[in-house]
Amino acid sequence: MLSKSQIKLITSLKQKKYRQQHGLFVVEGIKTITELLQSSFNLQKLYTTKSFKIDANNNKIDEILISDSDLKRISFLANPNTALAIFEIPKPKKIEKSGLILALDAIRDPGNLGTIIRLCDWFGIKNLVCSNQTVDCYNPKVVQATMGSITRININYVNLENFLKSTNLPIYGAFMDGTNVYQKQALADGILVMGNEANGISEPIEALITEKLSIPRFGDLQATESLNVATATAILLSEFRRRN
Amino acid sequence: MLSKSQIKLITSLKQKKYRQQHGLFVVEGIKTITELLQSSFNLQKLYTTKSFKIDANNNKIDEILISDSDLKRISFLANPNTALAIFEIPKPKKIEKSGLILALDAIRDPGNLGTIIRLCDWFGIKNLVCSNQTVDCYNPKVVQATMGSITRININYVNLENFLKSTNLPIYGAFMDGTNVYQKQALADGILVMGNEANGISEPIEALITEKLSIPRFGDLQATESLNVATATAILLSEFRRRN
């Protein structure tokens, strides 16, 4: 049986305010929980309807067996999995100002952020810098969409304008009217900024961009919507990496 | 007021079986409805809480004004928009066997298919061929994710194995262990096959691939998950197009 206070704590973690207050976040699904157990992230509580017994490193896990109906009460999903874990939010490490850094200016969709974190992992981007207006990376939908990649990327939330002002690195930005990225002979490491889903890169950030890049469009020029920000990020990260 | 039979028809269109039986599909949200009204798609019914009056071409629209509560009864969304439209499913045109064709082998996630249709539109891919195991493109979540692009792409559902057997075009496939796509000097037009989210390209289809391609991974080789199929499609379509 779950106590009322346990249920209250867990369901409060849907909200960023309480995640930050408690320094905790929720993960659901055996696959992602197992990935996190194998990482440096610290487990706080594991609620499960079937015993995990040991984690991937053969360590005994302190698990709390609960019923399906209890899981339903604490799950954030319409169709709950068999387990829900609470992990501690790790302290972000200092941003290394080397290599390629990805910066996000007010990305709002959890699925997009999750996909972008997974892309960082694939393309070996170690540092992801998010403006304070970007959706929280410990939002359950983001964690789910990262497929475990969240454990391998150093994510910092910052005042993006101040952060960009403090660096001498090249600052690239994705725009509809930038230089055709295919025609760039070289792309030096620096910071690549991707903008908000509806509005793109905001004006104060645009003023700090040293090179505007764009992905050429081949479809009907009148009609085609812009690319989704996660797919545009995929293409631009690929463009940076293929030149190495 | 909506009649019971109207409500029954609309809600039945959540299911592929009834979409096919009636030849109709549902679109919600003013932005996507407006995109579809501007296309060659035929409107069957428009239910709205606020009058559209005229469409983008200044034609009078035959709209049915309904209350918020009626919209709530027919909407597929948790938070309904202000309008819901029913359009006729268009007859797909014959697949043109020229240019670059994208083929999907059992893509199951509606968001992925929607994103891929939007990518086709951006990259000027006119023909999308889906295996019969691929999620229905008139699934409401797919339509929503295409942002109107669905009106500009010719989408055919086929027996993919038979389709690929009937062509002499190069057949590319995305694999974890294919040729590094960055190192290809040229990529001739042909058919690019993308596989299922969990299992990749199925064995019968793999046997028909003439060239396996892969996107190199730069992150930690042990840990990183595969790329999401929509982002992998974005990168590969970009690779085909940037060589032109």
From TrEMBL, chains A, B:
GO MF terms here are:
RNA binding; RNA methyltransferase activity
Claim: Methyltransferase is one of the keywords in the record: yes
Domain of life assignment: Bacteria
**Pfam families hit by this protein:** MRM3-like_sub_bind, SpoU_methylase
Q: Which UniProt keywords apply?
A: Methyltransferase, Transferase
InterPro entries documented for this protein: Alpha/beta_knot_MTases, MRM3-like_sub_bind, Ribosomal_eL30-like_sf, rRNA_Methyltransferase, SpoU_MeTrfase, SpoU_subst-bd, tRNA_m1G_MTases_N
SUPFAM superfamilies given in the database record: alpha/beta knot (SSF75217), L30e-like (SSF55315)
GO process terms (BP): methylation; RNA processing
Does Coiled coil show up as a keyword for this record?
no
Gene Ontology CC terms, in alphabetical order? cytoplasm
RNA 2-O ribose methyltransferase substrate binding domain boundaries: 26-93
PANTHER family the UniProt entry points to: RRNA METHYLTRANSFERASE 3 (PTHR43191), RRNA METHYLTRANSFERASE 3, MITOCHONDRIAL (PTHR43191:SF2)
Family per record: Belongs to the class IV-like SAM-binding methyltransferase superfamily. RNA methyltransferase TrmH family.
Per its record, how is this protein called by name?
A: RNA methyltransferase
Give the species this sequence originates from: Neotamlana sedimentorum
